[in-house]
Amino acid sequence: MPARRQRCVIKIMKIIKDIEFIPGGGERNRLDIYIPDGIETPAATILRIHGGAWRAYSKNDLHVAHRLIDHGFIFVSTNYRYSSQARFPAQLQDCKAAVRWMRANSAEYGIDPERIGVCGDSAGAHLACLLGVTGNTRHFDVGLNLDQRSDVQAVGAWYPPTDFLIWGKHFIDCGFSKETAASVFECIPAFLGRPIDVATENAKLASPMSYVHSGSAPFFLIHGKKDPVVPYLQSVVFADALEKAGVEAKMILIDDAVHGGPQFDADGNFMPLVEFFKRSLR
């Protein structure tokens, strides 16, 4: 699941690069902090989780950074272990460790520990969704700063996989072939440890849908209706489950969009997400 990659110019006061949120964890356990000029602290902060099929790209993919920084958010971009290094739940454990680190070091960097949002696209959106629905359990909290919480207060997700158990069915329901699904699922064995059609327990464990509850964070989902990688029904069923649990779930479906592309950055599709974060993290 390739992430959208785009050059951007970021106007900021301070950048702190390559902070080890897990000491000794190497490059994949580092994050960067971007602090905008002139903000009052402690400030609402958004953690960005990159996409890339859980096996590619990095915290240096900053296509949304400047737009969020311009609206007064502290922006944190994190790496996590690739599936070639460790299978799930390692990636979620790393993201939760990053959130705990943010809270443990909030005073030093001006982060408001009660106003942390998360955003991501594709595989990063999947991990962002998991952060949003697992705040009521410590099952995935391992390692350092365990005196800190790993919940988040708002989630923005572009084209997230939300239910591995019906992902294949959604390809067919959206008019794609079994061959298309098979080509996408090539990345799954390394992530779940087994092919998706026989990894039932791991697929359930890795599905945000499995953890939806009334205390989940509010969500904003954006998906292209022609997405050939993560069918848009993955967002539809997830939003429906959140709403049935009494959780806010906003959603934009873009008729002609696929898996990434300029439509997602258009003001009409991006600014509602900014306003959602402003309202949810005020």
Protein described:
With 282 residues, this protein is of the alpha/beta class. The chain has a single domain (14-280), classed as Rossmann fold. The chain contains ten helices and eight strands. Strands 1-2-4-3-5-6-7-8 form an eight-stranded mixed β-sheet, with helices on both faces. Strand 3, helix 1 (65-69) and strand 4 form a beta-alpha-beta unit. It is globular.
Class by alpha and beta content: alpha/beta
Query: At the third CATH level, what is the topology name?
Result: Rossmann fold
Q: Give the N-to-C terminal Cα separation.
A: 32 Å
Question: Count of helical segments?
Answer: 10
Report the CATH architecture.
3-Layer(aba) Sandwich
Kindly report the average pLDDT value. Answer: 95
Compute the number of structural domains: 1
CATH superfamily: Alpha/Beta hydrolase fold, catalytic domain
Q: How many extended strands?
A: 8
Question: Largest sheet, order of strands side by side?
Answer: 1-2-4-3-5-6-7-8
Which sequence of SSEs, written as H and E, runs from N to C? EEEHEHHEHEHHHHEHEH
Helix content: 25-40%
- Text of the CATH class: Alpha Beta
Regions with pLDDT < 50 over 5+ consecutive residues?
3-7
Instruction: Note the main sheet.
Output: 8 strands, mixed
- Estimate the global geometry from the Cα principal axes: globular
Radius of gyration: 17 Å
How big a fraction of the residues is strand?
15-25%
